[in-house]
């Protein structure tokens, strides 16, 4: 099996309920290694809930989730991050009072795998200071790669909206992910920022050899960068295919536009 044909993430009959509401209803799907997959649907379709299930913020009532053939259904969020799953959020969640570099370094502290390292950092022992220097160097290197090094010592809140989105992706990359989940990365962007973001996401996939799933309402983004698309409505998977297939799918048009569909 070729590397690009390997399935990195697999969901089998995954279901999540909130009281009487079924937010994700018996969802089955997969993501191939190196793929750029789109996840779309009307508001309330269950897209972000699915991301929360993949990252461990929620646990399902039914079904299983596998990452690189490991069952992660009930693993904690930090365990999944260490395995190689990272995400961004619909609403920017940067540490606004920290610098750009510090925001990236926060993500790198995942490498401190025990309370002993935390004690060493608090006590400022030589081994901890050496690790901190190395993390700073790695953070600066990452910022240089993604084009943000010139802002390293600025507060995150001082960046433009588009650059804050870019920093959020860079912070996720600092964890060394194999799978990156982007939740509406183009939300609130102007047309020029959106085009730059599209190019950046494709570049991130190719440069970092990372698999990406994107939730996005801007169809220009989804159709412009994704190789395959899943469509959700009322928690259910209603369509799957290449961008052109999805554009011409009458069930998808009905879900988005309310068009009548003759079956």
Shape field:
globular
What's the pLDDT, averaged over the residues? 89
Task: Give the number of DSSP strands.
Answer: 10
CATH architecture of the largest domain: 3-Layer(aba) Sandwich
Poorly predicted residue ranges: none
Number of helices: 10
Give the structure's gist in a few sentences.
The chain has helices at 47-55, 77-83, 100-108, 115-123, 126-146, 161-173, 191-208, 219-225, 243-247, 250-257, and strands spanning 7-18, 21-32, 36-40, 62-67, 70-71, 85-87, 179-183, 211-215, 228-233, 236-241. 35% of the residues are buried.
What does this structure look like?
With 263 residues, this protein is of the alpha/beta class. It folds into two domains: 3-95 and 175-257, 3-Layer(aba) Sandwich (Rossmann fold); 98-154, no CATH class. Helix content is 40%, strand content 24%. It contains ten helices and ten strands. The protein has helices at 47-55, 77-83, 100-108, 115-123, 126-146, 161-173, 191-208, 219-225, 243-247, 250-257; strands at 7-18, 21-32, 36-40, 62-67, 70-71, 85-87, 179-183, 211-215, 228-233, 236-241. Strands 6-7-8-3-9-10 form a six-stranded mixed β-sheet, sandwiched between helices. Strands 2-1-4-5 form a four-stranded antiparallel β-sheet, with helices on one face. β9 and β10 form a beta hairpin. α3 packs across α5 (126-146) and α4 (115-123) packs across α5. The longest helix is centred in the middle third of the chain and has 21 residues, at 126-146. The chain is globular and about 60 Å long. The model has no long low-confidence stretch (mean pLDDT 89). This is Amino acid/amide ABC transporter ATP-binding protein 1, HAAT family. One of its GO terms (molecular function) is L-isoleucine transmembrane transporter activity. Keywords: ATP-binding, Nucleotide-binding, Transport.
């Amino acid at each position: 099996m070729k590397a690009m044909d390997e399935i990195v993430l697999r969901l089998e009959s995954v279901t999540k309920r909130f009281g009487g509401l079924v937010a994700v209803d018996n969802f089955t799907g997969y993501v191939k290694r190196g793929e750029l997959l789109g996840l779309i649907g009307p508001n309330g379709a269950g897209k972000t809930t699915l991301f929360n299930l993949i990252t461990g913020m929620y646990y399902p009532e039914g079904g299983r989730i596998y990452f690189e053939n490991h069952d992660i259904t009930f693993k904690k969020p930090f365990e999944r991050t260490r395995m190689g799953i990272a995400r961004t959020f619909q609403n920017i969640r940067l540490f606004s009072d920290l610098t750009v570099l510090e925001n990236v370094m926060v993500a790198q502290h995942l490498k401190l795998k025990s309370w002993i390292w935390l004690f060493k950092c608090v006590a400022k022992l030589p081994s901890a200071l050496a690790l901190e220097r190395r993390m700073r160097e790695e953070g600066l290197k990452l910022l240089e790669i993604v084009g943000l090094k010139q802002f390293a010592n600025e507060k995150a809140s001082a960046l433009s909206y588009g650059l804050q989105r870019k920093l959020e992706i860079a912070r996720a990359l600092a964890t060394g992910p194999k799978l990156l989940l982007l939740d509406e990365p183009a939300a609130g962007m102007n047309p020029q920022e959106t085009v730059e973001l599209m190019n950046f996401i494709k570049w991130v996939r190719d440069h970092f050899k990372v698999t990406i799933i994107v939730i996005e309402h801007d169809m220009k983004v989804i159709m412009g960068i994704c190789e395959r698309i899943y469509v959700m409505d009322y928690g259910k998977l209603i369509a799957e295919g290449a961008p052109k297939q999805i554009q011409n799918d009458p069930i998808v048009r009905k879900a988005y536009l309310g068009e009548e569909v003759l079956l």
